[in-house]
Each structure stands twice: as structure tokens, then as C-alpha cells.
Design brief:
By secondary structure, this protein is mainly α. Helix content is 59%, strand content 8%. The chain has helices spanning 13-16, 20-33, 38-49, 56-71; strands spanning 35-37, 75-77.
């Protein structure tokens, strides 16, 4: 398993070259804890809104997180 992402971790998906596997790990951690930090939320949003092309799998992962947020399954923490 991967080490937990610190609650104050900076995550810049658009410039970090985060791979689909790493994104998968971040998403898994989000759903395991049912929490997402505002920093990670903003990074995911910036990735979707950036001109960087996401693969189908990456977009599906990000969409899964935002759908869970919309439905209230995840808690946003500072």
C-alpha cells in the first residue's frame, strides 16, 4: 500500500506529471478516508480545467471524486 497523503500535502496534478497509477492511489486514499483536502480538491479541479489532456481513465477517476463530493459521500477538510 502507499503511504498516506498528509492532510496539508500539496498536489499539483497538472505540472507534476502525476501518472494514472499515482492518481489511482490518491483517489483510493480519498475514498478510504472519505475525506479530501481543499488543496487536493483544487488541484483536481485545476487539472480538469487545464488544457492538459487527461486519459479516459484519469478523467473517470477525477469524475468519480467530484460525483462523490456532489452526493455528500466525501467530506472536505482544511
Amino acid at each position: 500500500m502507499f503511504p498516506p497523503l498528509p492532510m496539508n500535502a500539496q498536489l499539483d496534478l497538472s505540472s507534476s506529471g502525476l501518472t494514472a497509477a499515482n492518481l489511482q492511489q490518491v483517489v483510493e486514499q480519498i475514498f478510504e478516508t472519505r475525506r479530501i483536502t481543499r488543496v487536493v480538491q483544487r488541484a483536481l479541479m485545476a487539472t480538469v480545467l487545464s488544457k492538459t489532456l487527461l486519459s479516459y481513465e484519469e478523467k473517470a477517476l477525477v469524475d468519480r471524486v467530484f460525483e462523490a463530493l456532489r452526493r455528500g459521500f466525501l467530506r472536505v477538510v482544511d
